[in-house]
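ugh ok fine here u go
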Amino acid sequence: MASVNVIDHPLVQHKLTLMRRKETSTASFRRLLSEISTLLAYEVTRDLPLEMIPIETPLAKIDAPNLSSKKLCLISILRAGNGLLDGMLDLIPSARVGHLGLYRDPHSLQAVEYYCKLPLDIDERLAIVLDPMLATGHSAVAALNRIKHYGARSIKFVCLVAAPEGIKTLQDAHPDVPIYTAAVDSHLNEHGYIVPGLGDAGDRLFGTK
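structure:
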């Protein structure tokens, strides 16, 4: 089964607590999500391969570590995924970007696709899929199905908060995709929201209801 990596860095946990508070403003929520996504990017890229290359410093010629492959692709699941995307691009500005539009049917809770634009060479890239909330897992599974259909072979899934139900759904469908999250919460309520969670990440990010 895919591994679940909980990022327990103190700064990540502190910023997540601020985001959970219902009185946190839209502007603060947006800023915190960008900040926390940069911290998550450090962890999700920790195992990128390095190679030694010759360089010359002002004092000497040396062999120094360099990324052996810069082929990364950040894929935002619209719309809330864009909140994670901005902070990660601050750290990885050369990454290609894909967008996948999905919404959750309020009755069936199933994911419905309305937009998809991915790099043509996605089969040659590490695809880092971004969605702040892993709730039922249906949107994540639909996204990964689509991304694999386009040829992606190396994929990581990054979220801010996950529910056990969503983790199981994703792992059952895509056991090869590791999950990176800042927290695994208690459960889903009858409406499919994560408890205690932080509410609807898209609404809080963009100030909509």
